[in-house]
């Protein structure tokens, strides 16, 4: 996607290309113009760090300022570094950038601009060489002067060289032409102050620029980092980039480059990035940026409220179809003009795309915002006369008011769009204000519920199995059944997406019954020593006849109750505790083992261990993630494992993904584990191969 830089930034920094990095300082974007200078396609550099493409002999000190800015997430300007060009040459690039943050404040990386200053660097090198040769001997003076004059004559930049006393030593014709100086007005030996007096007297600079200010600017630039370019705006509107380079023995060299056209192009690009090309209205990006500012201002106690209006043109498609896209475009421009003329100063009119517009409006309350929405609908419905054609359209408007809370521009726009959808569903040509009942989550929930019912009826669910590995015996002793939904459009859908809704709607009961029955049938095909673990929800446990259904599934599959392990989280016991405990005791008396899943994540896990004799506790994966990084994580793991051992309860650690984690839990006393290190959940047909090979082979894979 294109890099969007703030307008103030592009006005102050000249550039040849735009770039963007992520939080690891790796390139994520390089503008197309960069390829000509980099000698590589932009795609070849995506994912690489800037240091990786620099000249190999660069030291840590050379990159100190850049890395400091990266670490502190601070804006930086004009960092200079050598670039290893694919053709074997070294080019010098100067970059500037600023950090990027998400709406929630998360650091996203940096974005900025870059310029190829190789020519300036080469010029400075030539000048240094020429000056060194001038000091060596009179015999080489003639040849040195010839080379020096040739370099000056062929420079595209203006150049002035001053000695330690600030007297002009060398200048080229390009400098005189750039500042409109006659041959008589500029002579060797003039001081910098005298030259500035001539320029100020000629009106070269704006009236507020003084001789002292120009000289002081030079002094400060020479005292700062070398090679940093400043910018001077001339009275005729041109912009000149000025670079200063001190010389050994005193004095300095100034180079001047006319970057007026570049600045215009940058401003044009920045404007295009934030404005719609057809109507010249701010686009969605500008709407978001402006909305963030207005939301911030609106949180002040005495500030008026902020309303977002989403506008959709009615019958616009008929105009395009009947009169052509040229007429449709003219109509959109007329709509934009009417909208601009109908809002107050400070409001923002934006085109979102197609025939959709938006308005950010300061309003005291919903009534004021709705009044504007209704007025805009009437204004846009007045007939249009374009190229001898009378066109009649309408407008539907959705309104959303920002709250004092942390509502984002995206949420505000979404709510206004939902209100607009409500208007269009009710017949168009009106306006309404967003209400919570319009929330799209409700529609999505109903759609998902409908699809869940259809999937259950059509048998679109399937079971995958993940092995439970015994570290002492070195073999797989069980399989956990994990439900997957084979969606016709989304593919395999994880249970985290649909299980909560299934529990809320009661679909978990028939779905859970199918899982138990199918898992028991599958387990009957495994060796007798392999147990089956099935997750059970609170809604299932509360359902009358649950225990009978479990026993019936075991009997139908022909496997003993000792091979079945029911896993549940402590939420199962939070509601109807006594009833649930009675059901669990009955299942346990029948020989079925009961496990507490996600142990340690709830506030009352230890309490439930006292109330019910669980056969196993499964330590949650959240305690595993930091084992190889934090010492306290290991202490917590040893404590949990020790608790299980002291209570005589088998303990399993889930979420093992690396060998380091495996060795850590083994050292802590763990004897049974589960995780992707051994295998991800796999279909039944793939379990037989897992059961025929030792876990070490699985882990090595």
TrEMBL record:
InterPro entries: Biofilm_reg_signaling, EAL_dom, EAL_sf, GGDEF_dom, Nucleotide_cyclase, PAS, PAS-assoc_C, PAS-like_dom_sf. Keywords: Coiled coil. Residues 445-695 form the EAL domain. Residues 304-436 form the GGDEF domain. Residues 77-129 form the PAC domain. Residues 117-154 form a coiled coil. It comes from the Bacteria. Gene3D superfamilies: 3.30.70.270, EAL domain, PAS domain. It holds the Pfam family GGDEF. CDD domains: EAL, GGDEF, PAS. This is GGDEF domain-containing protein. It comes from Methylobacterium jeotgali.
């Amino acid at each position: 996607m294109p890099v969007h830089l703030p307008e103030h930034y592009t006005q102050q920094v000249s550039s040849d290309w735009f770039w963007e990095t992520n939080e690891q300082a790796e390139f994520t974007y390089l503008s197309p113009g960069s390829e000509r200078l980099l000698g590589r396609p932009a795609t070849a550099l995506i994912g690489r760090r800037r240091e990786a493409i620099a000249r190999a002999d660069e030291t840590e000190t050379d990159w100190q300022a850049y890395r400091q800015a990266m670490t502190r997430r601070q804006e930086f300007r004009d960092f200079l570094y050598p670039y290893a060009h694919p053709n074997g040459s070294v080019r010098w690039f100067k970059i500037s950038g600023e950090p990027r943050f998400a709406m929630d404040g998360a650091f996203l990386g940096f974005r900025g601009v870059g310029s190829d200053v190789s020519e300036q660097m080469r010029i400075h090198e030539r000048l240094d060489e020429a000056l060194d040769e001038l000091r060596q001997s009179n015999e080489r003076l003639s040849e040195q002067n010839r080379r020096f004059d040739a370099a000056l004559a062929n420079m595209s930049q203006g150049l002035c060289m001053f000695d330690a006393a600030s007297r002009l030593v060398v200048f080229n014709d390009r400098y005189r032409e750039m500042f409109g100086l006659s041959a008589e007005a500029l002579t060797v030996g003039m001081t910098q102050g005298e030259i500035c007096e001539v320029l100020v007297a000629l009106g070269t600079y704006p009236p507020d620029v003084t001789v002292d200010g120009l000289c002081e600017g030079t002094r400060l630039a020479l005292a700062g980092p070398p090679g940093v370019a400043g910018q001077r705006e001339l009275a005729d509107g041109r912009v000149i980039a000025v670079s200063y380079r001190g010389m050994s023995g005193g004095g300095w060299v100034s180079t001047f480059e006319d970057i007026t056209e570049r600045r215009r192009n940058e401003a044009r690009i920045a404007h295009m990035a934030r404005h719609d090309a057809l109507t010249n209205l701010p686009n969605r990006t500008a709407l978001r940026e402006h909305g963030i500012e207005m939301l911030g201002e609106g949180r002040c106690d005495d500030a008026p409220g902020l309303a977002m209006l989403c506008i959709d043109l009615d019958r616009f498609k008929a105009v395009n179809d009947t009169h052509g896209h040229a007429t449709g475009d003219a109509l959109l421009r007329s709509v934009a003009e009417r909208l601009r003329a109908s809002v107050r100063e400070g409001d923002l009119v934006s085109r979102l795309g197609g025939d959709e517009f938006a308005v950010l409006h300061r309003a005291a309350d919903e009534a004021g915002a709705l009044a504007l929405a209704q007025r805009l609908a009437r204004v846009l419905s007045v007939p249009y006369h374009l190229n001898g054609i009378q066109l009649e359209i309408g407008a539907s408007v959705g309104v959303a008011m920002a709250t004092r809370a942390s509502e984002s521009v995206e949420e505000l726009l979404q709510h206004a769009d939902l209100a607009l959808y409500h208007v269009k569903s009710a017949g168009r040509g009106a306006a309404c204000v967003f209400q919570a009942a319009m929330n799209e989550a409700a529609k999505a929930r109903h759609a998902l519920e409908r699809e869940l019912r259809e999937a259950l009826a059509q048998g679109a669910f399937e079971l995958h199995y993940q092995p439970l590995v015994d570290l002492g015996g070195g073999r797989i002793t069980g399989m956990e059944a994990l439900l997957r939904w084979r969606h016709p459009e989304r593919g395999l859908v994880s249970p985290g997406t649909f299980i909560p809704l299934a529990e809320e709607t009661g679909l978990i009961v028939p779905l859970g019954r199918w899982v138990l029955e199918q898992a028991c049938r599958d387990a009957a095909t495994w060796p007798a020593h392999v147990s089956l673990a099935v997750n059970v929800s609170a809604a299932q446990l509360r359902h009358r006849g649950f225990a009978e259904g479990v026993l019936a599934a075991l009997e139908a599959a022909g496997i003993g109750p000792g091979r079945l392990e029911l896993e549940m989280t402590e939420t199962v016991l939070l509601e109807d505790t006594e009833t649930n405990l009675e059901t669990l005791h009955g299942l346990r008396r029948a020989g079925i083992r009961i496990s507490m899943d996600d142990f340690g994540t709830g506030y009352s896990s230890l309490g439930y261990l006292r109330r019910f004799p669980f056969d196993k506790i499964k330590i949650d994966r959240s305690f595993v993630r930091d084992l190889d990084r934090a010492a306290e994580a290991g202490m917590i793991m040893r404590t949990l494992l020790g608790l299980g051992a002291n209570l005589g309860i088998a303990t399993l650690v889930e979420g093992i993904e690396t060998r380091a984690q495996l060795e850590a839990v083994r050292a802590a006393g763990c004897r049974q584990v589960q995780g992707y290190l051994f295998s991800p959940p796999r279909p039944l047909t793939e379990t037989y191969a897992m059961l025929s090979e030792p876990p070490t082979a699985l882990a090595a894979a």
